[in-house]
Amino acid sequence: MPSSRYATKPPCPNCGAVDKPFIGLFCRDCYMKDHPSLVKVPSKLELEKCKRCGKLRVNGVWREWDDLVVNKWVHDKVNAKSMNDVHTQVYLTPHPKEEKEFRVKIVVSGEVEHSRVEFVLHSTLFIRSNICNDDMLITSDYYEGIVQIRMSEKTPEKIRKVQDEIVSTLNPLQKLDSKAVVVNWVGQEFGMDAWIVSKKAAKAAAVAISRLHHGTMSVSGKLIGLDVHTSKTKNRLTFLVRIP
């Protein structure tokens, strides 16, 4: 008559254990020795962070830091293809001594060989400093829009007022367009020019000044090159605003 000890769970055929968690017919330890890649994550993970604006580069796209997005990115690095009904939880903890490091804890649960199992994985997320595409343009004084302000009567006070109005127009736009920035102010005999990285933002500034001062606006374009990524032509737009 077989021993009642094995009535509900036969011993692991490899090591004879009966008091360990099992995966299928084998104890978990023996099963994992034969399946070391059942669930894994790289020991080192890396994301780029713009040193000027703080955006992260996730899957090739620069975007604001978002815990959900970062957690999803880490989640996608987990390899658990041999498991069914997989659930993954990601926990990020800032390193107490290294500002650009995060300790990563990943809890993965799923079904293997009709057994429900859970694994706790560990990794380190390194944040590497870089500069995003938009800020690269800003720091290189690149601009696609010019707002030319021409006044019937130019005074220092009037110049400062219009400059403040342009900046006030651009500031709210920066949430969606980080290129809504003036990279240079150029004084002119009858006014000034504002060089703006984004031509869309330049148009918004020109329209705002024209309306605020009941002026007139005209626009002209100039070919400045070819986008190496899209092969599309790049134009610089000049918005001429005449105000009283």
Helix share bin = 10-25%
N- to C-terminal distance: 108 Å
Output mean pLDDT. Answer: 90
Shape: rod-shaped
How many discrete structural domains? 2
Number-wise, the strands total: 13
GO molecular function, one term: ribosomal large subunit binding
InterPro entries: Nmd3, Nmd3_N
Pfam family, one: NMD3
Protein name: Nmd3 N-terminal domain-containing protein
Account of the protein in words:
It is a single chain. Strand 4 and strand 5 form a beta hairpin. The longest helix has 15 residues, at 156-170. The chain has 5 helices and 13 strands. It is α+β, with helices and mostly antiparallel strands and 244 residues long. The chain has a 6-stranded mixed β-sheet with strand order 5-4-3-8-7-6, with helices on one face. Strands 10-11-9-13-12 form a 5-stranded mixed β-sheet, covered by helices on one side. Strands 1-2 form a two-stranded antiparallel ribbon. It is 22% helix and 40% strand. It is rod-shaped and about 95 Å long. The protein folds into 2 domains: 41-130, Immunoglobulin-like; 133-243. Mean pLDDT is 90; it is low at 1-6. InterPro entries: Nmd3 (IPR039768), Nmd3_N (IPR007064).
